[in-house]
Design a protein that fits this description.
The structure is a homodimer of 374-residue chains.
Chain A (H helix, E strand, L loop, with lengths): L18 E2 L9 H9 L19 H17 L6 E6 L2 H13 L5 E6 L2 H10 L5 E7 L23 E3 L2 E2 L4 E2 L10 E4 L16 E5 L10 E6 L16 H6 L9 H16 L2 H21 L4 E2 L11 E6 L5 H10 L2 E2 L10 E4 L6 H18 L1
Helix pairs in contact in A: 1-6, 2-6, 3-4, 7-9
Chain lengths: 374, 374
């Protein structure tokens, strides 16, 4: 209905099938897209789309409770932990965690295994904290993981922050680090893609725009023992205690993102839950790594045991071919393969919703491009 | 696709036509809902829904720029002012405004004409500020407005905060208060419903879930002269300066809400812009006020000149009939007429997207209910 002339600069326009390798917002399952479409203009016989219903009405309040119950089941979240659904994404949590869990002068600890951990540590530094870095993999250009045990973590630290999967560098922890202090996980790109020991964590947060649906909400799973500590100057929208007391309805949530999260949880459950997702995830990633490792034309720099099953960055021996690779990939309907601007090269993100056929199409393209340019 | 059995407790379920008087999230124009549906599963020939496209891709970056340009045109925003599209709703801005515009120890001033001003003043009180209240209409139960000139505002105040339209009490300013200090407007329920003197304001913020589309984004219009002052401990997602420098793309925005905002701006422009919306708005409100004022059965307590054209609270002489009124209204497809829990009674919200036929249906119901129960 827009009258604006669109520039149409995307070479993939007007293709019938495209595969979307974006790191987030990311691809959705066809079944979820169909359900969204099917629920318009009337959601469950209300005569209204979900997105126009009041968040104070019985229907949305029930939906919120249902979504939390499904999350609890899908991730085996113990009763000791509360589930919040907030706004502001992972970056909002970079501020929320220190504001909710520390007092000025406290020490906090960060495992730095990539870009997002670095950014979170930087933001924590704005809150009058002593920011300790018991591991920083920068010297290895973030291609390795630190050991998970016997880390030099001050037991007086308010928390240990780590990033189970670094989206930009493509490094992933298989198990959480071992520590006596509350463990904080930025799980945006890992959640719901494999089983997770929720009880081992003080806080897990995850934006919804990767494995949980669309952008606009952030799931926070928090040990109830950590509630009640927010600083006075914590913005209410980031205050875990206030939000817990209000069942995440202190203000208007992104109702559409909550609704799509519900659809995603159903979809994952139907396919066998996080265990099935982990198998799928491994299989899809193996296809891409095999293609990259089979040639000297491509390269993934990450240490074998640290390689992510969700985000696979790769470069070419001749980086001057990058532009051509990306342009031809786009023309072939393979979208958003450009690496993050901080590392360059290419990156394929393979979240739950990326179908095997998309990965196979990518692998075929990777091999074909080498044949033609190698 | 959900396997959950829905309780179906909403009596309006399975009606073919419903009218949604929710105060937000609020009703959308049929044409916008149709456009959203039509853009699934492929937005503008990309083969992907808008909501799965990367916010770093050329398409979304262009959409963001287009939306800002349309906002600038629709609201006649001068070049002196920047436009940000953030997350966290109006409540996020209750913290963002003091964090961005003040230092500890500063004085800030609030005109209190209803619930949202009171809440914003309370939140500002968490930031080591002297919170002055040059007008507080609580004594009149928030049914009146203060004079707009000669207010006792300390010229040393960092800003004067007011709420052009109070959603819960239903009081609305026709013109902004006159002051020499930067003027901050919480315009969530008024924006785009009438012309506004943007240049007279330092900051205008508005959640998107009323007149601008769906929940999940908040538009902030800010005098560029006020940038560069954020406190160190401002969460990045609420930092006007960082967000301005990043064109609101410091983190992943609620891309779906930005997309629906684009559709809403087109729809309003097609109907004649804010001037036409103001005429429509007045006409719709007059229909409801006339029905209420014509009888002693119903009552709106707000002083004539302060009455809102967007939110009309009303009570019945016999409040024991409230439940029956709401139940029968719902059965007749008139949704979300319950007053805010803090004031009780009923409330009809008539934003831009509420069609005249919805208002007429409501007025007929109001009259009929009186006939049967008066």
């Amino acid at each position: 209905m827009s009258k604006t002339r669109w520039s149409g600069r995307s070479p993939w326009q007007n293709r019938s099938v495209t595969y979307n390798f974006s790191s987030g917002p990311a691809t959705l399952p066809d079944a979820v897209i169909a359900a969204i479409r099917n629920d318009l203009p009337s959601w469950r016989g209300t005569g209204q789309p979900l997105m126009t219903l009041s968040h104070r009405g019985a229907d949305f309040i029930e939906l919120m409770a249902v979504v939390k119950a499904k999350l609890r089941q899908a991730l085996a979240i113990p009763d000791s932990h509360d589930i919040l659904i907030l706004q502001g994404g992972g970056m909002g949590q970079f501020a929320a965690v220190p504001l909710n869990l520390t007092h000025p002068g406290d020490k906090v600890s960060f495992l730095l295994t990539g870009n997002w951990g670095v950014q979170a540590a930087k933001e924590a530094g704005n809150y009058q904290l002593c920011v300790d870095r018991p591991a920083d993999q920068q010297s290895g250009n973030y291609t390795t993981l630190p050991p998970l045990e016997n880390l030099a973590i001050d037991p007086a630290s308010a928390y240990l922050h780590y990033v189970p999967n670094e989206t930009i560098q493509g490094v992933e922890f298989s198990t959480p680090p071992v520590t006596v202090v509350p463990l904080v996980a930025d799980a945006s790109s890992q959640i719901l893609s494999r089983p997770m020991d929720v009880g081992a964590h003080g806080v897990i947060f995850a934006g919804t725009q990767k494995n949980l649906g669309v952008a606009g909400a952030v799931v926070v799973i928090i040990d109830r023992a950590l509630l009640g500590r927010a600083r006075l100057e914590t913005p209410s929208i980031l205050d875990y205690t206030k939000m817990s007391q209000a069942d995440s309805l202190l203000n208007t949530p992104t109702t559409f993102a909550v609704y799509v999260l519900d659809l995603m949880l159903d979809w994952v459950a139907r396919l066998g839950g996080v265990e099935a997702m982990a198998v799928e995830s491994r299989a899809k990633a193996d296809l891409v790594y095999a293609a990259i490792d089979a040639s000297d034309f491509y390269r993934n720099p990450v240490e074998q045991s640290a390689r992510s099953t969700k985000n696979i960055p790769f470069t070419m021996a001749d980086p001057s071919l990058d532009r051509q690779f990306l342009a031809e990939a786009e023309a072939a309907g393979l979208m958003f393969l450009e690496g993050h601007r901080s590392v360059g090269g290419m990156r394929a993100s393979l979240y739950n919703a990326m179908p095997q056929v998309g990965v196979v199409t990518l692998v075929d393209f990777i091999k074909d491009f080498e044949r033609r340019n190698g």
